[in-house]
Every structure is written in C-alpha cells, then in structure tokens.
Write a structure and sequence with these properties.
The protein has 337 residues and is of the alpha/beta class. It folds into two domains: 151 residues, Isopropylmalate Dehydrogenase, CATH 3.40.718.10; 152 residues, Isopropylmalate Dehydrogenase, CATH 3.40.718. It is built from 13 helices and twelve strands. A seven-stranded mixed sheet has the order 3-2-1-4-12-11-5, sandwiched between helices. A five-stranded mixed sheet has the order 6-7-10-8-9, sandwiched between helices. Helix 6 packs antiparallel against helix 13. The radius of gyration is 21 Å and the shape is globular. It starts with a strand and ends with a helix.
C-alpha cells in the first residue's frame, strides 16, 4: 500500500506535514509514502531521516487558497496537490491522498481527477464533533462542500455518513438524523420535507428530524444537512464554544478564589480540552463519495493531525468504506425505483 501526501498543503507545510508522515511511517511499516513537493526543501526537512518507505515526487509549484480551484487543478500541473492526485489516479497501489491544502482545490481535484462513485452526484465533507457524552461523537454531513442540494443528495449523505461512522467507531447501525427546525415529520423547508421519505426508505437507522440544539446531545450519531446549513451549524458551534471558554477564562482570572479553584481543577480542564480535540483524534475527514480515499486535513494541521489522518485512511481502506457505500447505494436505488 502507498499513500500520496501533498507535502506543501496547509499553513504548517512542509515541516509539520513531513513530520506527520515520519510518524505514520513508524506506525505503519508496511505502508509506503510518497511526498509530493519541492524535492530540495523536502530533503532539508527530512535531514537524512528518510527510509526506503518514503519517496519524493518533485513538484515545484503550490496551489494556494487564493487560486481559483478549477483553473489551478487544470493549469498547475507541477503543483504538489496535482502531482499527488495523479499518483492516486494512475497508481493502483496508492490507496489514499492526504492534504491540508485548499478545500476547494482538493474537492475540485477529487471530482476532476478521481471521479465519483457511480450514482453519487455530490461528494461530501463529514467532520467528527464531540457531544456532551464522554464516549460519543457526532458526524456532520455535509459541512460545506455542497451549499445547494437536492433531496437525493441528502439521502446519499445519509448512506455515506452511516457507512463512515460504522467503520470509525465500530457501530453497526449508527443513528441518522436530518437537521431540521422541528422534530415532526411535516416540519422543515421543501428540501428537508422531500428528503425525509428518501432517507426513511434508505438502508440506514433513520431516527427522523433532529433540531440543531440536539446535535451535540449524544442522541444522534450522523447529522445529515445540506452544506449551507451544515456549515452554519458547524461555525456557530465553534463560535459558541470559543465564547464560553473565553468567558470562563475571564471569570477565573477575575477572582482570587476562582484562581485557586482552577489549580485544583487543572486535570478536569485538561480532560475537557482533550475531549474537544476531535481533530487530534482523527486528523481530518475524507471527501465521501469519491472512487478512492481523499483525506482533507484542517489547514492548521500539525504532525499529530497528519499522522492521525494517515491512521484513518488505512482504517477506512482496510474496512472497505467505498465498497460499503456502493452496496448501500444499490439498495437505496432499488428502493427509490
């Protein structure tokens, strides 16, 4: 097995990306890694620490967030991202691509270079988020890759999210909910009203409509949404958490008794911080719906995030995520007919 890595994608490239690959190579000695990027700069970071399991494909150009995704994928043929996509497309031994680069460019490359699973019209991003339960996370699909959706897209999101969650957490029938402004079946806009019966008729454990305030309750495993609503939900949640943490920090510093109490609660705060760091646990998330695994890491990813993303890619490949999505799609298509 090989994994192609965009060594120059992300805010901390190439240093943290390459360090993450070195960690991945230690954890998976049976896997080969191909670093795509400026060869001289990659060798400087490796500083002789490479092995026969790590090779380099020279790519002097870089696709940035300022580039127009479609033009960049077409014209920047010598960029680290395009070189990585070409490897994923042309080499059967390459099982996945890992990049912390431009989300738009990665999505565009995934569609143009790799293609979609037959029957899937829209690949989706599905980040994992913490819930109030210590042993439960929730998957949000889609979180922004598709801002305008049709009802059938939401059914496909439910299928893909369910298959992904089941592998990631070993849950046989994860609970799938549809983001809505009410729990009743008749609630929602035209999109959710039409999507409801499609998801209900799909081979997933559909629990119905779920309001936004409940999505971190631990009562739902996969939250299905169109990309626009999903992204708003994600960003609003991030903002709310940051605001609460800021208020808590300010309140603690305001009183001597609070400062003393905080010293005794340092272990609790550390555990809370670890619970909120789902990115560190899983690294990134795949663009679900592509013919091969394309892992999208956060732009600020560090070495541990990259290493975790590599772990996840191997887990998803070995558990045949794409095959499971194809099988679920066949059943759903037959039910839709």
């Amino acid at each position: 097995m090989k994994i192609a890595v965009d060594a120059f994608g992300g805010d901390n490239a190439p240093g943290e990306i390459i360090e993450g690959v070195l960690l991945g190579a230690q954890n998976h000695p049976d896997v080969e890694f191909v670093l795509c990027g400026d060869e001289n700069k990659i060798k400087e970071v490796l500083a002789g620490r490479g092995s026969d399991k790590i090779t380099i494909v020279h790519a002097p150009d870089v696709i940035t967030n300022d580039d127009v995704p479609t033009e960049a994928i077409r014209k920047k043929e010598n960029s680290s991202l395009v070189k990585a996509f070409n490897l994923l497309k042309e080499d059967e031994d390459v099982i996945a691509l890992v990049s912390a680069g431009s989300t738009g460019a990665i999505l565009t490359g995934a569609i143009m270079k790799i293609g979609r699973i037959k029957g899937i019209s829209r690949p989706a991003l599905a980040p994992v988020l913490p819930t109030k339960l210590a042993n439960k996370d929730v998957l949000l699909i889609d979180s922004g890759a598709n801002v305008d959706c049709k009802p059938i897209n939401l059914q496909h999101f439910a299928l893909m999210g369910s298959a992904y969650y089941s592998i990631l957490y070993g849950v046989e029938n994860p609970r799938v909910g549809l983001l809505c402004n009410g729990t009743e079946e008749h609630k929602g806009n035209e999109l959710t009203k039409e999507a409801y019966p499609l998801i209900k008729n799909a081979p997933v454990n559909f629990i119905g409509n779920v309001e936004a305030r409940e999505y971190m309750s631990g009562n739902v495993d996969v939250m299905v949404a169109e990309g626009f609503a999903g992204n708003v939900l994600l960003k609003a949640s991030e903002g709310a958490v940051l605001a609460v943490l800021s208020l808590l920090k300010h309140s603690i510093k305001s009183h001597l008794s609070s400062k003393i109490g905080a010293l005794f609660m340092s272990k609790t705060f550390k555990e809370l911080k670890g619970r909120m760091d789902v990115l560190g646990k899983h690294g990134g998330s795949p663009f679900l719906g592509c013919k091969k695994l394309v892992m999208k890491n956060h732009g600020s990813s560090n070495r541990n995030n990259i290493s975790s993303s590599i772990d996840q890619a191997i887990l998803l490949y070995k558990n045949k995520l794409i095959k499971k999505i194809e099988q679920a799609l066949e059943v759903a298509s037959a039910n839709n007919a």
